[in-house]
């Protein structure tokens, strides 16, 4: 019954980024994409307010591009780009 999905990882943790593959596969085992277009997925690199980054913006963008997902970087703590993610989700759901 979902209309879109957020896959969130911690940019300071390479292992959380590596987990995206598992979560992405699980997602597509569970959903039944509609005929109106691709199922909207956003990949979100969180904790950009921290300095010890292990996953680059380029890595996140590349993974997202290969998996036909939208990429965002956020800081939930600083509220950076959080609103943009939800605005994207609303637009994506309304399109489908």
From TrEMBL:
Taxonomy, superkingdom: Eukaryota
A Pfam family per the record: Ras
Gene3D superfamilies assigned to the protein according to its UniProt record, in alphabetical order: P-loop containing nucleotide triphosphate hydrolases
InterPro entries, per the entry: P-loop_NTPase (IPR027417), Small_GTPase (IPR001806)
Keywords: GTP-binding, Nucleotide-binding
Protein family (similarity comment): Belongs to the small GTPase superfamily. Rab family.
Name of the protein this chain belongs to: Ras-related protein Rab-7a-like
Naturally occurring in which organism (per UniProt): Gekko japonicus
């Amino acid at each position: 019954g979902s209309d879109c999905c957020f896959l969130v990882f911690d940019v300071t943790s390479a292992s959380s980024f590596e987990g995206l593959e598992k979560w992405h596969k699980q997602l597509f085992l569970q959903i039944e994409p509609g005929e109106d277009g691709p199922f909207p997925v956003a990949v979100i690199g969180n904790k950009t307010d921290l300095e010890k980054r292990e996953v680059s913006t380029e890595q996140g963008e590349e993974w997202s591009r290969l998996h036909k997902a939208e990429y965002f970087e956020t800081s939930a703590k600083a509220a950076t780009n959080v609103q943009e993610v939800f605005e994207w989700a609303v637009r994506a759901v309304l399109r489908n």
